[in-house]
Write a structure and sequence with these properties.
The structure is a homodimer of 462-residue chains. By secondary structure, chain A is of the alpha+beta class. Chain A has three domains: 284 residues, Zn peptidases (Aminopeptidase); 123 residues, Alpha-Beta Plaits, CATH 3.30.70; 35 residues, no CATH class. Chain A contains 14 helices and 18 strands. In chain A, the strands form four sheets. In chain A, strands 1, 2, 3, 6, 7, 8, 15, 16 and 17 form a nine-stranded mixed sheet that branches. The radius of gyration of chain A is 23 Å and the shape is globular. At the A-B interface, strand 9, strand 10, helix 6, helix 7 and helix 9 of A face strand 9, strand 10, helix 6, helix 7 and helix 9 of B. Chains A, B: This is Peptidase M20 family protein. Chains A, B: Keywords: Hydrolase, Metal-binding, Protease. Chains A, B: One of its GO terms (molecular function) is peptidase activity.
């Protein structure tokens, strides 16, 4: 390792302009899931390419059938420097309900919270524009001080992460040689808490399904037909309500096939983190763990699978009342997977289960929305150890190696398609309200995030 | 009873001018729900008053905070003639989508369908201007032949039936003495089929409820919180799915209190109508009765209570996918009531049931949307028997006494507020497309409807 003090100082001096650049990116409304923002997604990709070029990257916008990728390359300081692929995504979640935002989600701002704490507000500050820019700004500090980067770096920024990444696998396949590195760095995760950085070594997988139940061929008057005609909302709610038993377990046949119990030493290290149900749930106004009984909330969110209804709609939903029996009812359902659960099998089992609940004169359609298996990395690999030490040098408390409830399908894709493990480091906090109104990112996350990458790149190069 | 032949002949001779008068009324665009047509509603009321005056009624437009009422009085042929209140409504439904109409909805016409069948086309022909004019024209025929009416008649025409009748109860209350009669005649229902007239003697009641379940104080990321945080859609779907057991019965405690089995002879008369599940459900693309097992579709829709979810919504319902755990989930639920079921008790039982399904850290709110008890008239009352015989004399097949799945709140209001039962007779057909484009009324419904009222008035006076 080298003396990184000058690079860290440069990162400190740069902070004002680093924020300016982040805010430029945040102002671009790159909502990938809504076709109305297609042009803005392209603009975000172009902005990133232009900026990376100023840092000496060989960068390009790479078109896909969906939103474009950004790919950039930079050589390392020496020929034997490790080659890392850095991944982030420039697309963001929709902003509805817009009326719950305190500020325009696309007009980012710095808000002083008192006691020296400042936050950056706006859609994408934490997920994931703020995070990916921590890495870019770390590279910039290196370049300005050393005219070189300690590692050979390939950057891949995606624009469809919030809409199921339909173009990602074909793109990785078509560009495998160009993108293959020694390992990937992924910055789309969080800290353990405000003072404790975290490396995520276990990620849940995800299966997304949309279900549409159709009964009559038109909306019916509930006076004329009520009691005799099938109500698709009843069919749907009955199927969905049957997904869990009274102990919180998921009832689908063979659902727990491939789910392994967490090793005792890992569970013990999680227990040391001292997170109670009240700690996790209290921050969002809840208190009672809702999942499988007899397991800690960390286990429930990091190491156990789930079935969640993410959206439901059918019939009359406006003001007042309409005594209608709807023709259709729909739901979006997702499963978080762990261990070796097979996404394709889970999808099929779910579909068969729902079909079994649909009366003979009704019908059901399914639409697949993404599938990825769970990811498990070795808790004691050299890369994790180096990153752990580098992070521990930067933050008040030592870094911890944790599980994660979310899904980062790219990690599985890197593993399967490019034979490459990922190091997952990020600086988000649990209260960042990603995917919700009033998303924010701590100024400390941004600033010390940049400094963290300076240290990690140095450690990886050693 | 008297010899009504001269009056019937006069009604036949009058048919041309009876149609002219109906068409004048149909041309007035009295859409009550759209404020743009406020003046036209007033015009319709004025037209009716002017016409009733020419028939010797003491008639007046009676203003309300909404659209006006028409009230008219005429003495009977003798002091001991029964006093009846005739009810109809002069307001009509909106005409959207206008592009689906074959003709201008407010330029009524007679259309020859071949084989001697003619129909009257236009908004309001069946619901309810055509129907109310059958009664008015019956009165006219009587007056022209006898210079008298066999019953003492009070007429009440409402202009807000299609927009929730907000002024009706206050008007009945304020004018109870003036409006109270021996019984009411309501002409807003249908025939059993083209040849078989019907008297509706049972109407289901209705309780409407909106339920809002709140879990976390914001939308959550299902990766971070899934498995630990309560999902309000799960809470709601579980509660709603639990409303019915596997036999289709409603599970709410004491729900069936006040529900009586339909007398065997009534059930037998319904079975004779020969309506199979396929007849009712086949027309809307269904085939399997969904309610309580072992009961005919007529029994299910006329004589059994229901619980229906009329609308449900929560979480992400747009394009694509969003792995959110919603903060709130909502549903609109209605109960059709029969017999002596108590709307207030049903509402409270439902609320208590839902509350019992809500976890300690979630909350639920309810919003009431109307309540009316079921209406049951004695199947063998003298008034029904007289009307049944009169109708049987006019139509090819004998009249049937039926139930109705829908609610006609006015009937309950007459019962509760004026202590007066209603006789429900109407000449609409199931294919009249009321509330839809291309509304029509059979010319036979109009002509024989007029003749039917001639016969009924005579029978009631006897």
């Amino acid at each position: 390792m080298t003396d990184v003090t000058p690079v860290l100082s440069r990162a400190d001096q740069n902070l004002g302009s680093s924020l300016d650049r982040l805010f430029e990116l945040l102002r671009i409304k790159s909502i990938s899931t809504d076709p109305a923002y297609k042009a803005e997604c392209h603009t975000a990709a172009e902005w990133l390419v232009a900026y990376l070029k100023t840092l000496g990257f060989e960068a390009s916008v790479r078109d896909t059938p969906g939103h474009p990728m950004v790919v950039a390359h930079h050589s390392g300081a020496s020929a034997d420097a490790p080659h890392v692929l850095f991944y982030g995504h420039y697309d963001v979640q929709p902003v509805d309900p817009i009326e719950l935002w305190d500020n325009d989600p696309f007009e980012p701002a710095i808000k002083d919270m008192g006691n020296g704490r400042k936050i950056l507000t706006g859609r994408g500050t934490a997920d994931d524009k703020g995070q990916l820019m921590t890495f870019v700004e770390a590279c910039r500090a290196y370049k300005e001080v050393n005219s070189a980067l300690p590692c050979r770096i390939t950057i891949l920024f995606e624009g469809e992460e919030e809409s199921g990444s339909p173009s990602l696998k074909p793109f990785l396949e078509a560009n495998a040689t160009e993108l293959k590195a020694d390992y990937a760095l992924v910055c789309d995760t969080g800290m353990w808490d405000r003072e404790t950085p975290a490396i995520a070594a276990a990620l849940r997988g995800l299966v997304g399904e949309e279900v549409v139940v159709t009964a009559a061929d038109r909306d019916l008057h509930s006076g004329l037909f009520g009691g005799a005609a099938a109500n698709p909302i009843h069919v749907l709610t009955t199927a969905l309500a049957g997904l869990h038993d009274e102990t919180g377990r998921i009832t689908l046949e063979n659902f727990y096939e491939g789910v392994e119990e967490t090793p005792a030493n890992i569970k013990a290290s999680w227990e040391k983190l001292g997170q109670s149900a009240e700690d996790l749930l209290g921050q969002v106004g809840l208190s009672v763990p809702s999942g499988e009984k007899g397991r800690s909330v960390l286990e429930l969110t990091w190491a156990r699978p789930t079935a969640e209804v993410n959206g439901i709609w059918g019939g009359y939903t406006g003001e007042g009342f309409k005594t209608v029996i709807a023709a259709k009812a729909s739901a979006k359902v997702s499963f978080r997977l762990v261990g070796k659960q097979d996404p394709a099998k889970i999808r099929e089992t779910f579909r068969n289960y729902v079909r079994s609940k649909v009366p003979a004169d009704c019908s059901v359609e399914f639409h697949a929305h993404g599938a990825s298996p769970a990811i498990h990395l070795a808790y004691d690999s050299p890369v994790i150890t180096k990153a752990k030490n580098a992070l521990s040098d930067e933050w008040p408390k030592p870094a911890v190696v944790i599980g994660m409830g979310g899904s980062i399908p790219i990690v599985g894709d890197f593993q399967r398609m490019l034979g490459m493990e990922s190091l997952l480091v990020g600086f988000g906090l649990a209260d960042d309200r990603i995917h919700s109104p009033n998303e924010k990112y701590e100024l400390a996350s941004y600033h010390k995030g940049i400094r963290s990458w300076v240290r990690i790149l140095d450690a990886l190069a050693a």
